[in-house]
Amino acid sequence: xxxxxxxxxxxxxxxxxxxxxxxxxxxxxxxxxxxxxxxxxxxxxxxxxxxxxxxxxxxxxxxxxxxxxxxxxxxxxxxxxxxxxxxxxxxxxxxxxxxxxxxxxxxxxxxxxxxxxxxxxxxxxxxxxxxxxxxxxxxxxxxxxxxxxxxxxxxxxxxxxxxxxxxxxxxxxxxxxxxxxxxxxxxxxxxxxxxxxxxxxx
Length: 202
What we know:
Blueprint: H1 33-58, E1 59-63, E2 78-82, H2 85-88, E3 96-100, E4 108-115, E5 120-124, E6 127-130, E7 133-134, E8 150-154, E9 159-163, H3 173-176, E10 179-180, E11 184-193, E12 199-200
Antiparallel strand pairs: 1-2, 2-11, 3-4, 3-11, 4-9, 5-6, 5-8, 6-7, 9-10, 11-12
C-alpha cells in the first residue's frame, strides 16, 4: 500500500508583538481614582490662582451701600470695579470712581467725577457749572436735584471734584472737598447683581 502522502508544510502565521498592559485596578477606559483627584485638585488650584490674579490686579467686586448714586446705582447692588483702568488711561469727566474717603481711609466711597485738576467748579441752586458752562446732567433726574449752592472752586493739581447723582442726600466734594488722585483706586465697570441690572456701568 502506498504510504499516505505528507501534507505540504505551510509557513506559520506571523506572531503579533503585543506589550503587556499596565497593571491597573480601574475599569477599562477609566483613569485610576487618585489620578482623578490629582486632576481635580490641579483644576481647583488653577481656578483659585486665576481668580486671585483678577481680584488683586484687574477687577474687584464691591457692594454699593446707600442711595447717593441713585438712580444709576442702587443700594446693595454688586458691581466689578476696574483697578487698572487708570494705570493706562486718564480719569475723565463723568467717570464713576471708587476711592478712599479722605476723612477716614478705612471707608470707600463711589461718586461721579465732575471736575478735573485745574477746572473751575461752582454750583448755583443745584445747577453745576464747569469752567463757566452749565453742565448737562441727564443722570440726575429732577426728583434727585437739590437747591444747594457752592462758591467757585478751582480743583487743585492731582485732585478731582466728585458728586453723587442723588444730590439731595449725597455726601461728596461739596462736603469733604476734592479727592486726591492717590485715593482713587478703581472705575465702576460692570453690575453683576441683581440679574435684572446686569450690564456695563455708563
